[in-house]
TrEMBL record:
Superkingdom classification of source: Eukaryota
Keyword field contains Cytoplasm: no
Alphabetic keyword roster: Repeat
PROSITE patterns: NACHT (PS50837)
Source organism: Penicillium flavigenum
Sequence ranges assigned to domain NACHT in this UniProt record: 36-195
UniProt cross-references to InterPro entries, sorted A to Z: DUF7791 (IPR056693), NACHT_NTPase (IPR007111), NPHP3-like_N (IPR056884), P-loop_NTPase (IPR027417)
Protein name per its UniProtKB record: NACHT domain-containing protein
Claim: tRNA-binding is one of the keywords in the record: no
Pfam families, alphabetized: DUF7791, NPHP3_N
Length: 664
């Protein structure tokens, strides 16, 4: 990433050399003594986000802000807009929610003041807990900041104002809000954006800097150091020092302060450098490269041969569309299985069950890293992640900079690079196949691969249920062969995969003939589940370690030994939690027993306790979202649920307040 390249060059922020002209308001002075807004502007790829992150993590920033705060408590909060992120990541609402969360964690005292009506609703246990509107959030932030005037000082860092979703009206709204907030003497705000006219007008009187005016020396030093470590460049410098110096000057000048352009161009020049090239050859190549990033991206892709371009576009599409991180192992499979731009549709069946040796894995990853760099023309890079325990996940592929990602998200760009050439390449289908292939490459498959497969399967079901059914059957067949394998436990998060049968090394008969069935229920892959239950009804009673009925009723609960609330990463009540009424009925019709034993309790009692545990979440649902819960409760009673519980149980009702019923 650009950050790792540029971090070491930002010392000028606190120690400006005499060569830097006073064309900017020094950040240390603003941090230590000023209020209001400080504006960091710069072109796309110039390093604005890198500078903001560096400031946030630099000890000297905190020291200067503490000097400004004096005897008062210092609070800091940050937000990074991202146009390619989720919808919430690029809205005013997302900004406000994040700032409030960060600030309240540091200073929770005003939490009851910021929205008294919301707290009243919570205390009264109303059926519909009111959602937060943007106006509510603005008022809450205002009240919070006003309450701090005597006790604390606040500094906010907001990056990427130009990436706010919407038009100039939306931008004026957020600029007006920031202006009002910064008028309080105990609040200051550092913002960054591209130098669009609307921001120039708003920030005309603010202390500011334009990044490309201040990074010329940093960029020249980076270019020099990058060329110096290449033996071929050292030879060229000795042969023609003057032209070599001119090359560095022209790269620096042509960059116009854009770090992304510099990094791609320097590596591109080194990549095409041949043994007999002269410095003049490199200078000629440089002069053919457009100054604008977008034009340069298009030029790079126009130079790729037709068949090779298809594979390159498929890789770009994969990187754009992957909802999780993209592993280098998955990219290596793409490189192998796409021949002349066409995907080998049967490659999952052609891969034998054969574990890779450490040498084979290292060789595969090394080759894949070079291929990714070549196929993406340097726009994708491989990043080593030390946090992952499994070697298949230790190398990830991501865009060199989000500007490159944003460029390919643009509809006009996709037309210009002929992205329609890979329109038939289905990312989720490929990912499912690639993950299954990776499972076959291990003696001890990792549950990370299984969890990722199930996630991709839920996305694929929306696109092509027929293809998914075939893939799930393939996975189930594989799992049957792995009944006695020791799976690698690498998952850190809360996931249904964590409670799947192999974790406890359950004897094969208890897993049933379709070991994937319970997991498919939990992930909502109901077409696969119905297909197997319809064709083989005895599956309902075959799996005896935990009845299928319980999986259908409590989808995200993966262990009967843990507390129910411990197993949820997000509140209960969303679409992924709703029981499938038709599936529950199908299970009941084929012998599913509400009174069947599950440990010390019955399925019915666990379900009632489940409703009681999450009653506050369920009370917030609207009438339509509440219906599946009510309907399955009625079905369980109709099919003989014994209505006796040890204590009172709360069940949801479509009215204000709650209904307490004693089923004894």
């Amino acid at each position: 990433m650009i950050g790792s390249k540029a971090y070491d060059t930002l010392q000028w922020v606190f120690d400006p050399p005499p060569t830097i002209q006073p064309v900017w308001t020094k950040i240390p002075s603003w941090l230590e003594a000023c209020d209001g807004v400080y504006w960091i502007s710069g072109k796309a790829g110039s390093g604005k986000s890198t500078l903001m992150k560096w400031l946030l993590h630099e000890d000297r920033t905190t020291q200067l802000l503490e000097s400004w705060a004096g005897s008062k408590v210092l609070l800091k909060a940050q937000y990074f807009f991202w146009s390619s992120g989720t919808s919430e990541q690029k809205t005013l609402s997302g900004l406000l929610r994040s700032l409030l969360y960060d600030l309240l964690r540091q200073w929770p005292d005003p939490i009851f003041e910021i929205s008294a009506s919301k707290w009243r609703s919570y205390d009264l246990e109303l059926a519909h807990f009111p959602s937060w509107s943007c106006s509510d959030l603005v008022n809450a932030l205002r009240v919070f900041l006003q309450s701090l005037a005597e006790n604390a000082k606040v500094c906010l860092f907001i990056d990427g104002l130009d990436e706010l979703a919407g038009d100039d009206k939306d931008r004026l709204e957020i600029l007006g809000l920031l202006r009002d907030l910064s008028k309080q003497i105990h609040v200051k705000i550092c913002v960054s954006s591209r130098p669009w006219q609307i921001f120039q007008d708003y920030c005309a009187d603010c202390p500011q800097l334009r990044l490309e005016d201040l990074t010329r020396k940093d960029i020249r030093d980076y270019i020099t150091e990058t060329f110096e470590v290449d033996e071929r460049c050292q030879l060229l410098r000795r042969r023609d020092q003057d032209t070599y110096t001119q090359l560095i000057f022209e790269v620096t000048d042509k960059a116009k302060g854009v770090w992304l352009w510099v990094i791609i161009v320097t590596h591109s020049l080194l990549r095409v450098l041949r043994n007999e090239d002269t410095v003049m050859d490199l200078l000629y190549r440089l002069r053919q490269i457009p100054e604008k990033l977008e034009s340069y991206f298009l030029q790079m892709f126009s130079n790729i041969e037709h068949d090779y371009r298809l594979k390159s576009l498929a890789l770009i599409k994969l990187a754009l569309s992957s909802s999780n991180t993209l592993s280098l192992m998955t990219c290596s499979i793409l490189d192998e299985q796409m021949i002349s731009g066409e995907q080998n549709q049967e490659f999952t069946h052609n891969v034998p069950l054969q574990a890779l040796s450490q040498d084979q894995l290292s060789e595969r990853l090394s080759r894949a890293q070079r291929r990714v760099n070549t196929m993406s023309m340097g726009l994708l890079e491989t990043v080593h992640r030390t946090g992952y325990r499994h070697p298949f996940y230790q190398h990830e592929v991501e865009f060199l900079h989000r500007t490159a990602r944003d460029f390919f998200f643009n509809t006009k760009t996709q037309i210009l690079v002929n992205m329609d050439l890979v329109a038939s390449f289905d990312v989720q289908e490929f990912l499912c196949k690639a993950l299954l292939v990776q499972m076959k490459m291990l003696d001890n498959p990792t549950d990370l691969l299984l969890a990722d497969f199930m996630h991709c399967a839920t996305l694929l079901e929306e696109e092509s249920s027929a293809i998914l059914l075939s893939l799930l059957n393939d996975l189930n067949d594989f799992l049957v062969t792995q009944r006695f394998a020791k799976w690698s436990n690498d998952l850190n998060g809360k996931s249904p995969v964590r409670g799947w049968g192999h974790r406890q090394q359950i004897p094969a008969p208890l897993l049933g003939s379709v070991p994937l069935l319970s997991l498919a229920i939990q992930y909502g892959l109901d077409r696969f589940v119905r297909s197997h239950i319809q064709s083989t009804p005895h599956l309902v009673t075959e799996k005896s370690d935990r009845p299928l009925l319980d999986y259908a009723l409590r989808r995200r609960i993966y262990s009967i030994d843990l507390g129910q609330s411990e197993q949820l990463e997000s509140p209960l009540g969303g679409a992924n939690d709703q029981p499938d009424v038709e599936l529950v009925l199908m299970i009941l019709e084929r012998g599913g027993d509400p009174n069947g034993k599950l440990g010390e309790r019955t399925v019915w009692k666990y379900f009632m306790r489940f409703l009681d545990c999450f009653s506050s979440n369920l009370q917030c649902l609207d009438k339509q979202s509440m219906q599946p819960w009510l309907q399955v409760t009625e079905l369980l009673i109709r099919y003989g649920a014994v209505r006796v519980l040890e204590s009172e149980t709360t069940v949801p009702r479509q009215s204000s307040g709650r209904t307490r019923v004693n089923l004894g």
